[in-house]
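Handout, page 2. Input:
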Amino acid sequence: MTSATLLIVDDEKSTRDGLRMALEDEFDCYLASDITEALAVLQSQPIDLMLTDLRLAGESGMDLLDQALTSPNPPVSIMMTAYGSVDTAVEAMRRGAWNFVTKPLNLDEVELLLKRALRSKSLEKDNIRLGNEVQELREKAGSSKHGLESLIGKSLAMQKVGELVTQVAPTRATVLIEGESGTGKELIAHAIHQLSGRPADKLLVVNCAALSPQLLESELFGHEKGAFTGASQKRIGRFEQADGGTIFLDEIGEIDQATQVKLLRVLSERTIERVGSNTAVKVDVRLIAATNKNLRDLVSKGDFREDLFFRLNVVRVLMPTLRERKEDIVILAQAFLREFSAENNKPLKNLSDDALAMLRSYSWPGNVRELRTAIEHGVVMSNDPIIASHHLPYFLSSPEQITPARLDSPAQQDAQIAQKEEITLASEEEFNLHVLELRAIKRALKHTDNNRTEAARLLGISRRTLQRKLKDLGSFG
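Output:
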């Protein structure tokens, strides 16, 4: 499996070295002691993740964060500090940090946070690109706002979703969007808001899984000065900021019980209370929530309030999987072909008949995200005007294709999660990424007459990393 690159920035050598030793089995680590060294690393090779201290020998990690975000491919950044407060955490995240961790560090927690950051960023990029694809299809089809079905596919399943969206969008009804990861739930939330008549620029998105319970409560409802340690000033929450507009709560199944109680009050009374205040504040906010979990199942387990579930489930939009809308595979594939041909400065390609047959026959456990990955692979690997089946990822021809259970089957929810976590990742990462890496390494070694130092330079990795990858990939040769 390919290693993500991690830049560790701390002015204490013992901290840098300790983090590197703890994380180098999972990440390809680079070290820097100050902003100058960190920027030099960021300019020399792509960095996926950055773990930086807030205080850097008289400099501020916030300044490094600001500069890192201006790079063409900014890393996902996590701030660490021994001087933690909620206000500092919120400020770091407002300026682009993905999350915040306090010292002394729990190394297992840091590793888990880094892995979650990578996955969250991947989902975010998928949603943005899918949104761009929808806009491109709209322009091509010349469709109106009531032609939502033509924006996201021509299948009957997506037509029904489009009809439901256009029906519910102009109302004030709360909407719950359910569906597997990668099916485009956030895209539907944007469509509902755009068709609602509320201000187009007043849609606030909150990923409930990305914040701790205390941070989530402050993020949603705000807090008063002195409400808790570190609350040095009053803060307006997302619900007040969204007054008159729409708030989209992604991964709603992840919120804790205390926040569920407060959210129930918003839905029942249209008021919020900031943390540390007893004063009710009226808000006019349209709520849209999304989850890849089965909330009914969570209710039966006691993990989600039944009364909140009923308040959220006024209108339910169930996003079909890509397996259920195979008529749309070619539409999406053609859009991704245009995207990746332009991105890689390659002429626009076409898919051969055997490639199309392979795309149609695959079960797509990873939905649109997995399709997008497959098309990108095909564009990169083909030097011909046509993308043939042998240019597509290995996992597409695997005979063992598992179809996850539908989300609206509560008894099968655990099996669905296990399939996506174990089978999807196994097929998509173990086969696709390993094969890609092995091909790239073999080509680099062939080009350099087996000079491993020169091959590592061509690949943009260290010689140590190349040695480790050769060892790890040995079974795939």
